[in-house]
Amino acid sequence: MSCNTTDHEFEDQSQKISQFLQNVGHKIVVMSGKGGVGKSTVATNLAVFLSNQGYQVGLLDVDVHGPSIAGLLGLTGLKLNVIGDRLQPYQYTDNLKVMSIQGLLDQPDEPLIWRGPVKIGIIRQFLADVNWGPLDFLIIDSPPGTGDEPLTVAQTIPGCQAVIVTTPQEIALADVRKSIQFCQKVNLPVLGLIENMSGFVCPDCGSLHAIFKSGGGEKTASEWHIPFLGRLPIDPGVVTAGDAGQAISSLTNHTKEEMQHIVDTMLQQLPTKQKGADSMKIAIPLAGGKLCSHFGHCEQFAFITVTDGKITEHKTLTPPPHAPGVIPKWVADQGCTDILVGGMGEAAQAILQQRGVTVLCGAPSDTPENLVTLYLRGELVNTGNSCDHDHEHGHNCGSH
Ligand SMILES: Nc1ncnc2c1ncn2[C@@H]1O[C@H](COP(=O)(O)OP(=O)(O)OP(=O)(O)O)[C@@H](O)[C@H]1O
To answer: Tell me: the pLDDT tens digits for 76-113?
Structure first.
């Protein structure tokens, strides 16, 4: 694998990534503020449960410094194959493909001492050069915290959503709050929060003991207006299954039921409209036929429908008069899946993200067709710019 890419190679790679992502129904990155809270365990279980339900699932480990997915699934030591110029992921079951840096290392315990740009290059290669095939779900296990890996995922995978894993202790919840704010800044909608290690069910008497407290995850989710997906108990079977590389086989029935509840709740949260694979409806605020950076005061909106990677419809509509929250709600009501803007206030972003709309800030002034083409190629970078240009609170962005 090479990580030194020229501009041309980068463009070529962006195109391959975009082609792959067009064939992925839902992209979900599993994150945590703190290490060791069970993020890889949750990512693996989500992937196994979804694939057991008949979905085509890809499980990608972007935790290049501490990859654990291969170990949890008993794949450690198995080398990955390359056919032509395509890496073949592990075919764990008929419905589940797995990709981890571990399969490329000569020694599974070899430490990787890589800086940001190399890690970014590897993650892009995992998306561009792996023979994933069409997927209903791409589940991505990211390292703890808010570093290069989740940032690369957010910037490279349009339409990606985050599942945040925490434990009930306040120290973990404090880091969750940072993760939620990170997601808001990089425009990664939060699909929901999971509280792991939430009580221990006594195998003798069946009663629940809240060893690390309980309920903090649900309270945090409610305070931040994000869905609470459910809780998993402390289950020695999780450790047994993980250490033996046997996925879910040793989990207690109670843990399996809770995991199924989490999967069901998550599926309910997902927008029924399919992004990428089937069709997208992309909104762009306009003035004089080009993107208008004043989102709340634009003349019109372009709504561009993209089916199978091609523009199939282009409508222009006039929005209702500007008032707080009105235009974001109106845009979401048009059934749009994505919006490309120059800048947008945090409140407007939150309304759109809550409705499942992906917001990309930092788009330049250009025609809607050109912007959509760049977006589909993965060439528009989300700057997370949260300026609404209303200048209502003495704010002056100074950019115009
Ligand atoms: N619900 C649970 N019950 C018991 N043990 C658990 C549970 N969830 C996770 N563990 C154990 O805790 C340890 C850490 O879990 P895991 O590797 O999934 O965490 P992580 O957040 O991905 O860690 P890292 O920060 O290294 O990426 C593992 O040994 C795992 O088996």
So the answer is: 888 888 888 888 999 999 999 999 887 777 666 665 55
Are 72 and 22 in a shared domain? yes
Do residues 76 and 108 lie in contact, with contact meaning Cβ atoms separated by under 8 Å? yes
Q: Are residues 311 and 162 in the same domain?
A: no
Q: How far is the CA of 383 from the centre of ligand 1 (A)?
A: 33
**Alpha carbon of 177 to ligand 1 centroid (Å):** 20
Check which CATH number belongs to the domain holding 287 and give it: 3.30.420.130
- CB of 56 closer than 8 Å to CB of 167: no
Output the CA torsion 260→264→270→275 (10° steps).
70
Look at residue 395 and tell me if it is in a domain: no
Tell me, yes or no, whether 274 lies in a domain: no
- Tens digit of pLDDT for each residue in 9-62? 888 888 888 888 888 889 999 999 888 899 999 999 999 999 999 999 999 998
Instruction: Judge if the beta carbon of residue 232 lies within 6 A of ligand 1.
Output: yes
Q: Whose CA is nearest to atom 3 of ligand 1?
A: 234
Q: Is residue 313 part of a domain?
A: yes
pTM of the model: 0.69
Q: Are 287 and 241 within one domain?
A: no
Q: Is the CB of 142 inside a 6 Å radius of any atom of ligand 1?
A: no
Atom of ligand 1 nearest to the CA of 236: 4
Q: Which domain holds residue 372?
A: 279-376
User: Who contacts 204 (Cβ-Cβ below 8 Å, separation ≥6)?
Assistant: none
- Spatial contact of 334 and 303, defined as CB atoms under 8 Å apart: yes
Going by alpha carbons, the residue nearest to atom 9 of ligand 1 is: 38
Q: 252 CA to middle of ligand 1, Å?
A: 16
CA-nearest of 137, 120, 132, 130 to 52 is 137
Write down the ipTM of this complex: 0.96
Substitution site in 62, 238, 262 for ligand 1 pocket (most atoms within 8 Å of beta carbon): 238
68 within ligand 1 shell (Cβ under 6 A): yes
Does the Cβ of 32 fall within 6 Å of ligand 1? yes
Q: Whose CA is nearest to atom 30 of ligand 1?
A: 239
Query: Would the CB of 38 count as within 6 Å of ligand 1?
Result: yes
Residues 335, 285 share a domain: yes
Examine the domain organization and report whether 204 and 334 are in the same domain.
no
Q: What angle do the packed helices 170-185 and 216-223 form, to 10 degrees?
A: 30
